Records
---
Amino acid sequence: MLFQFSGFCFLFLTLILFHIIPARFRKWTLLAASVIFIRWQGKASGLFVISLITAIAWIMGMITDRLSADKKEKEASFFSALTIILFVIILFGWKYLFWAAGLLGFSVPDRVRGIGIPVGLSFFTFQAISYMADIRLGKINSEKNPFRLSMYMMWFPKWMSGPIERTGDFLKQFDECGNTRLLDSTRVLRSLSYILWGLFMKLVIADRVATVVDTVYADIPAYGSLTLILIAALYSVQIYCDFAGYTNTMIGISGLFGIELTQNFRLPYLAENMVEFWRRWHISLSNFLKDYVYIPLGGNRKGTFRKNINTMIVFLVCGAWHGAGLNFIVWGLFHGIFNVLAALTKKTRAAFLAEGVAGHIITCILAAFAWIFFRAASLTEAITFIKGMIPSLNSTGLTAGLVLNEELLLGMAVIDWGIALISIAMLIVFDVYAEKNKKILPDIICAKWGITSRAVFLTIITLMILIFGVYGSGDEIRSFVYMQF
């Protein structure tokens, strides 16, 4: 959801309508609102694509289920596999078609290139794949009502960037959402806490830091080694606050309607190694890859060597899923290597490198290094950035760019640097506090804090969002990073 005034109006009107109509019609109101939202934000083409994939999943799911019921296992497996392959072709074909054409020297007409990738394609396609796979595995029955399946695919808070939900759990909540009470103080407080903390991460931190990151990435050779190292660290903060901020906000919005989304982030930068990092970062994607790629490949059941190969395959798929380009493949490859090394290190005398304080520091460094390939526009740009981080290979010096230019430092005003540093310090303190309590901060606020503490904290966060949030209008509003995937 873009942070437009019209977006907040849409949410407010949907919430009011949801609570004033009879309970038995409420879930269908949410489906209608989701369709309207997708048409609005994703345009007619976006609505058409998600509707087409939903229709295919609905028809093929019923066929697969019927064949399984008739003990025609081979035919059921064929139709299920065929549908999943079709979804994979749609997803990766759409992502890589233009990139491959350019690589092979073919010109793509601007009219065709202008179509672009539908918003949320990666997320709702993976949901369709999990739906078909779960039917074949006997975890769920096919959905006979196309409108219920449509709600699973189209629920607007998760449409753009997930989380990647599972059919059974989600539809159960969908069926029960009509019982949601407007004045349920516990639910409203929890939802509000998630929304405000998410908006703080996105508007106060991520979008402010993004100004500096974008400035440096626009002309990498002009900056010194220390400057580039600083930017690598700041981008780690930006993407975490952007994506986790999105997830927290959408969990809060869904909660207002009685639907609880999967928690996608559990303090990933406090992990002790890269294996643990991926249990905390983009959790719904990690679980998807584990259940539908890693385990079918054999998981860890066929020895250490095969386990490591399977891990590498999973992360290559992960990299390819995120975007078209060798930089994403290399990003996935590095995470595969980091995961393999972390698992192997735990069995040696070097185990201290994958645990404790050393593990925390190394994990943050490795994640920040890999993010360079993720942020860069190409593999060449990523290599240029990394070379620039090495003093002996950077001819501009250590601190080039770290000077005030018309009251701006790396494209951002000094006062904004102060706001960014204070906000990041708050984030670190509260993340460490949440880690010690084994919960996400919004849940701690609701479960452990008193009325006064809650009121003071939420008031301060609200004021920071209103006063220090980075806003704009129209095209000036910065979209979520993961919307492009």
Note: The two ends are 14 Å apart (CA to CA).
---
Amino acid sequence: MYSLLIADDEAIIREGLLKLIDFAALGYRVCGEAANGETALNIIRAQCPDVVLIDIRMPRMSGLEAIARARADGYDGKFIILSGYADFEYAKQAIAHGVSGYLGKPIDEDELSERLTAVRAELDRRRMSIEAGDAYRAGARSIALTQLLRGQKPPVPLPDIGPGPWRVCVCPGEKLPAALAGACFAVQLEGDTALIVYDAQGERRLAALTANPPADMPFLACGGQAAQPQDLRASYDQARAVLARRFFYPPQTRVLGAQAVVPPTFALDAPLLERYASDMLGFVQAFSRQQLAALLVGLRDTLVRSGAGVQDVRLFLTDLFLRVRGTLAHLYPAVPLPASSDIFRAFDRAPCLSDILSQFTAHFDAAMDAMGGFTRESVLDDVLHYIEHNFRSNLTLESIAPLFGYNSAYLGKLLSRRVGESFNSYLDRLRVAEAKRLLEQTDMKVYTVAERVGYSNVDYFHVKFKKYVGLSPAQYRAQRKAKAGS
């Protein structure tokens, strides 16, 4: 089954295509939708769909410009233009970019189905040709690349491994990034998959993934570039070193490069441990939650800069927690604190550094509540102030919580109790309120207003605005203008 992207600024057209055309029966899987040319280009770069149905006139970037840029990036998939503009100049430009069809609107269901069937036949022929011709070469190439990654002498001459330069990325899972298909070779080595990205097109795709990784993308640890095939071993060793540093980054991190490797700089010794234990204990006893949060942020940075190994960091944090816990247990016998064995087990199993630090916050938060004399309101005021001043950006509980030393799920519960609704609902209300102001006081286009208040998808903005206001953005603007003129 081939992947297919639908790009049209009219939601009714996209919805109509999904309802009228049985894409699965024609051999296609719809991998995404785009309401403007810029979004379409980003999806093409990230997912490399086999076929793109695309309108010509769209906001932010025309369909023809998106096609031209995708071709410049090396994208060799199929384009079918859907346009209400039967202009010969448009058709000439489309032909120059190698489109596979130019269908007018309103779209004829049978005509589009026939065009998609013909395109699928072209894709089938290309796939069969590649599979038949590459079967032997793929086996020889895999052996040669494995030998290069192991630092062994490969056969001479080398099978085709692309024009270079090359870069090795290690993927610890079996799933591979779809966006790198056709721009890398995969080799199984040491229980992981080593991806050898082999040309400038692959580098551009990798850069796009790094800047805007899909949520379901597998983790990639990337080594440096290899100018010669014999340098692949060095790139692979760098990628393995990067993989070993994954623990120090949040779980949502999808791509890491060589900058993640930090050489050993200083020891996690007893004086450092004593200093953090003393400060941490003082903040807990003083109910100074903000200072404790800042201390944990600083501790994280210190541990990363130290260049210490993962196991040394786990042991340091376990020792730190148990020292503070022991003193609190002695001074406040009634305060509930986790057993030492539970801490050993939890810290040893934690997948990442931020998870361990979140456990510090959760346990000491419970201790301060039991000790009395503290209210969460001051911290929540700070959190709400932060949200109210940053709602235009891509805010999530996962991005806010570490700033205040909270676990994201726990912070979500505290905020819900405070504001009487979920974090997402509260965020939507702030954004919609600002959108109403912009619609009333400016002449901005609706999609510009959506972007200004934090919605990258204008259709999603329409849904949220109507949910809270009862009118579409355009209807609301018209209503306010009518009232102002009366």
Note: The radius of gyration is 28 Å.
